[in-house]
Amino acid sequence: MQHRQSKSEFIALLAFLIVATLVLTNGFVARISAQGKDVDVFAKIQPIGDVLGIILDEYVRPPDIDKVVEGALVGMLNALDRHSSFISEDAFKIMREETRGEFEGIGVSIRFDDDKNIIVYQPLADSPAAKAGILSGDIIYKVDGVSTAGMALEEVAKRIRGPRDSVVRITVARKRENAEPQIIDYTIKRGNIPIESIKEARLLPSGFAYVRVSDFKDTTAKDLSKRISGFLEKNMKGLILDLRWNPGGLLPASKDVCELFLPKNSLVTYTQGRKTGRSSLTENMKLYTEKDPLVPLGLPIVVLVNEETASCSEIVTGALQFYSRAIVVGVKTYGKGSVQTIIPLSRPPNTALRLTTALYYTPAEVTIDSEGIKPDVEVPFSKEEQRALVEQMFESVKTDASMLNQQNHGTITGNEASEKTAEDKQLQRAVEILQEDPVFDNLIKKYHKDTHETQVAAPADRILQQGPHADKDDAAVVVSPENPPAPEKK
User: At 209, which helix (H) or strand (E)?
Assistant: First the structure.
């Protein structure tokens, strides 16, 4: 009886503290009133206390209340839409590092192999791991003497990461032909590892520059500008900007990238949020280019897109297509037209909310959420063909990370053809189009479609639809003093 009274008193006290905190710090009562007289929010949240009481009474062992609360927060955000979510402490730390364009670690990406071993996917060029001699395909056997057998990928990642100048011991098993694997111990000093958005940058045999951008970070426009400037010095004939498999990133970065291609004062995107009567950073934001373009306006540009092109990469695609600055080649994009604001929390400490706060609109005045952008030139590319191409590209740099800009896309990148060659049909088509005519206006007249056809809003009932949470980069806006499935970076 005493236990039940203590439990009841605890729940009552918890409920009182929650309500008191909300009232005093967030204007919660006023927001409840704004919901309308038909909604009794206090009554609506009572089931939370009921469920917590049952858990405290009936769960098989004493529950970890912190985990229960975090689970409730996860469920609350997941119930809104497929892009809102709760960000745990570890995930928030990683997210902040990656949006800054660097992290502290040894510079490897890891994944599971077919036998569920955790292997090195690729050491980054010039990273501490690469300099120590770690190779792609090495099985990570131990970290600081602790076996990785049965560990989750995230747990191994967490053990490998650490402060700059600290040391980690990595034991790998390296497969050998007709012999037992070689066991090798490495002692590696961690460092600051830059994470470039540019995954490939090269002049193709045709004389056109090819640049593949993986996501949009604070550093993306700077990195892209550096590569394009080098190609301009080499008199590139045109540019192919590859945004395939690009899930997006930071909203301001999309404006920064567009500044490389569009005239000054061009509208890149604008947002519309819910009219609440309170100020919101994303309620009515308009992003215009503020600089003269780096790339001469007459230079031909093709943008490659696919069904994984999402968020900020769609903003860039939409803007370049709207202003007839690029011919878009590929298939219809993913269709993520919402903006997420990262809101740091003080409780639980060092966590955050990723909350959908607005829809973004292309200069064509439509939101492409749940609809996507249609290409000017459609070139279908099946999942099987994509998988074969990606595996071929990886194999071409597997043993030498310095070959990153020489990946094998088939004969279009000057590689020899064989029965097993996977041809990058979309890249091939882009080059064919650019080779037709050196005058870009002529290519635009031939291939560019009216944006009333390529940029169309989805029906209202499909926008911000719920469903399985998407693996897109939803951090479009960061409100903070700091601003195939991708392998974990360490």
Answer: strand 209-213
First to last CA, the chain: 52
Residue type, 391: E
How confident is the model over 384-398, as pLDDT tens digits? 999 999 989 988 887
Q: How many angstroms separate the CA atoms of 443 and 464, rounded?
A: 36
Topology annotation, domain 102-194: Pdz3 Domain (2.30.42)
Half-sphere exposure of 92 (CA within 13 A, CB side): 21
User: Whole-prediction pTM value?
Assistant: 0.81
> Which pLDDT belongs to residue 99?
76
pLDDT per position as a tens digit, 25-52: 444 445 545 555 566 777 888 888 888 8
Task: Give the residue carrying structure tokens 């400490």.
Answer: 349
CATH topology classification for 198-478: 2-enoyl-CoA Hydratase; Chain A, domain 1 (3.90.226)
328 - beta bridge partners?
303
Residue 227: how many other CB atoms lie within 10 Å: 18
Whole-angstrom distance, CA of residue 239 vs CA of residue 109? 29
Q: Let me know: does 231 contact 203? Beta carbons within 8 Å.
A: yes
